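Lab meeting prep.
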Amino acid sequence: MEFQEILTQFRSLGGVAENLTWRQGTHGSGLFAVNPRLPVRLHVPEQLLVAPQWVELDEAGSIRIAAKSHSSLSAKAVAFFEQYHQFFGWGNGGLKSATEHQRDLQALPPQLKNFLHILGGAEELKQKPTAKYCLQKYFVARQIGFKSESRLMPMVELINHAPDGLPYLVGDGVTVTGLVKDEILARYHSHLDSFHFFINYHFATPAHAALSCEVSVDVPDVGTLTIARNDHLADILGTIRIPKMTKDRAQMNLSFVEIANKHHPSQPRKTFASLMATHDVPDAVSQTLFDGLIEHNRQVLKELIQACRCHPSAMAKSLEKVASFQLTTIN
């Protein structure tokens, strides 16, 4: 199927695709402006935003909308979605790419697995490259929050990522629009760090934020402070993401700790000190702890970079790039 054919189907179902085409570029396949002097516009209407739980694999391993979900979509929308993923997604290298990535993770030497374990990859390291799990990972990179749910966004998910790319506009659907010189790039997330981008999307990229690795620290006169990397467990206060904190006797648990933020350089330290103050940790102790976290993460990342150079492989080279991006953000 040619791209113009799927575009015709997309537009007939209410989609908008103006001044764009699909081809290969420096990021792999992606969407590009036809005329760089004119704005691009891509809009996926709500009726084409499919919930991941509506999707299943048939006996041939192809993506299908489950029969019980057909009532939520028109027959034309179902046909479009299934053909789109057959020719421009899952069936066009999506399954192969997810499977190879998972196999490469499993093939990492124990030393690199240990690093990845404390930097957000513990769940992925446990998973075999089954079609079911690869489909789950395939969806992670192709969905967006819409009306408090996760929805897959065909066509828009063909756009590659850049830290300063165009924003997603969510309203009666999902829209990306603006002037671009060549390839259309979107900003997937503003709060993820480089390791979370790697785990979720399987590529190395700079990030505006950096989270601490998983670590436990003994705090004098307080107890043990345990830090995870579960940044989905957060309270949102404007642009600030505040970690969830629990305390059990002499144990404090933080869902995550942001240790660097290029957009708000002083905020991570302030947020950490405020959380520590709620449990009567003196400010001087909080400042020392935060400095220690930064230095510990620097050391971990430097050791990871060195370990990657001692175990050369395509996956190790990717992890080295991710660690270097993370280190740059912290510095």
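Slide two material, second protein:
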Amino acid sequence: MDKKAIALLSGGLDSTLTIRLLLDQGIEIVALNFTSPFCQCNRKNSCQLESKKVAEKLDVKLKVIGLGKEYLEMVKSPKYGYGKNMNPCIDCRILMFKKAKSYMEEIKASFMITGEVLGQRPMSQHRKAMELIEKEAGLEGLILRPLSAQVLNPTLPEKIGIINRDKLLNIRGRSRRPQIKLALHYKINDYLCPAGGCLLTDPIFAKKLRDLLNHLKNPLWRDIKLLKIGRHFRVSNLTKVIVGRNKDENEQLLKLAKKEDSILKVTDYTTPVVIIQGRLNEEVIQLASKITVRYSDAPKEIPVTVLCQIDRDESLRKEIAIEESQLENMRI
């Protein structure tokens, strides 16, 4: 066993501090970042960009791995179940650790480090869950958690003297104060998403995802991306309406729309882009048109013109806004 390790790097504070601590002990670090459409930071300042920035500042190599179809299948049916919402935290860690192990073997690293803190997250960061994840991933004794090392069992690199355990920490629980104090010591002051963030833990996003999986057997990543955008309404068992909330979302909806999706807009007023996904009939088109008027700047009490693009054919129709009380029964 030599002094080469891979480090899971999210770009957040905990993983940044973890690498910094091990660099102080002369460990050669190769950082590994996993990308997922479920990251809350995956917008203008994505976790991937943050991990690259951190890797450059710490002067460590970075490998980025995208979690693809295998990850989505795991989310649909996790062996160890969900947390409070749609977060399969234990299965997620097992999958990532297995992929990390393969990369570790590929570059001939000896062990792995993570920024996990004992007791910080209720589902995956308690002692039994950590032990289970290590066993399932085939990494027993090879996952070092420097921030909590002194309150966990010694790992193999500690036992054989590659790592000085006395220079590791004993942080536990959900308080961020010890990490923030350490960040000040290292003059780390521009970190984003300090505690990380997964959309699967968000109750609103989880509700949208649950609805999607209940109505679509094999969703694509494009369908997942759409869950982050706009207001969603289940207008029938086979049909969903998505309403853009601002100019940026309107543009994203147009980019993500497939040729079989219908697109609606109000013609003479500021309007959202509205997409109909699924089976169409006159009742659905009328309902979607009324929803379009509701979220436009058009008057709500009189009929206004809605432009409907269906099967690439355009038509105009007059509708009044749907009542707010009717919307609540369809809102996802």
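Talking points for slide two:
The longest helix spans residues 89-106.
Residues 229-328 form one domain.
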